[in-house]
Backbone:
């Protein structure tokens, strides 16, 4: 048995496609735990071939860290797969994560390719994978064996797997991070502190379903600033540097990373946020 954990706020269609992809897994001994960051529970197909449990997680600002912790606490397995609600899982994903977690107590990370805006209806995984884009900041994972990753900060919440015992050693994710950004990097740093080994796992490809993208991510501006400051106060270094540099270049903040200084000069206007929305042809920014 293995537990697949996901989070949802809205995005019913994304959740439907994630669960549909899990129903086509070659490995079928698993449960799904859905941490619901919304007052109304999502609709779940009663005919899915695996059990699904819903956990309500309150919070107006996205409580991503708290939701992941709640899902992990509710899991009935000692092996945890965290999979973003926007993902469509390859049929081999659960089985290969499970195989490697049983063999080695490491933090496994999965390759994610990004889908453009398209009609997903009646398209199989292979057809979708053919049009998905590899993220240029991530490695191409070979089909055989684990690929060691020396940089813990490559951990991303879209797709990773970990033993429950290791997750508990660092008390899960830091729930002081709210809204968006920083909580995964903080989690990775704390895992590195206990000498965790990070590896890219073969044959666990997930496809990220399209949603609106902003670059710079002005729609998340206050949360990124808050969480970046919290991260710096904790670790003495910055996370989300690319976004902070974009904010600095656009005049929203003054940021001197070497001196540890970050000051908000002005917040983006509604029109500026709208202008940052990327065309539907761009899968990611």
Residues:
């Amino acid at each position: 048995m293995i537990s697949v954990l996901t989070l949802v706020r809205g995005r019913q269609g994304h959740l439907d496609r994630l669960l549909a992809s899990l129903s086509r897994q070659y490995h079928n001994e698993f449960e799904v735990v859905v941490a619901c960051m919304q007052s109304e529970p999502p609709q779940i197909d009663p005919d899915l071939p695996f059990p699904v449990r819903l956990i309500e997680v309150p919070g107006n600002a996205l409580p991503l860290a708290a939701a992941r912790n709640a899902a992990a606490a509710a899991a009935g397995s000692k092996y945890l797969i965290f999979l973003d609600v926007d993902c469509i899982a390859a049929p081999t994903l659960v089985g290969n994560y499970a195989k490697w977690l049983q063999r080695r107590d490491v933090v496994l990370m999965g390759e994610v390719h990004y889908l453009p805006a398209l009609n997903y209806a009646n398209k199989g995984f292979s057809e979708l994978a053919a049009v998905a884009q590899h993220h240029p900041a991530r490695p191409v994972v070979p089909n055989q064996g684990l690929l060691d990753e020396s940089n813990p900060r490559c951990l991303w919440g879209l797709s990773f797997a970990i033993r429950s015992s290791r997750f508990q050693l660092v008390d899960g994710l830091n729930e002081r991070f709210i809204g968006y950004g920083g909580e995964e990097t903080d989690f990775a740093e704390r895992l590195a502190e206990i000498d965790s080994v990070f590896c890219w796992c073969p044959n666990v490809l997930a496809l990220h379903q399209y949603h609106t993208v902003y670059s710079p991510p002005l729609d998340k501006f206050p949360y990124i600033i808050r969480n970046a400051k919290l991260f710096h106060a904790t670790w003495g270094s910055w996370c989300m540097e690319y976004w902070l540099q974009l904010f600095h270049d656009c005049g929203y903040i003054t940021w001197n990373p070497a001196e540890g200084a970050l000051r908000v000069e002005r917040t983006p206007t509604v029109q500026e946020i709208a202008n940052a929305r990327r065309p539907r042809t761009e899968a990611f920014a």
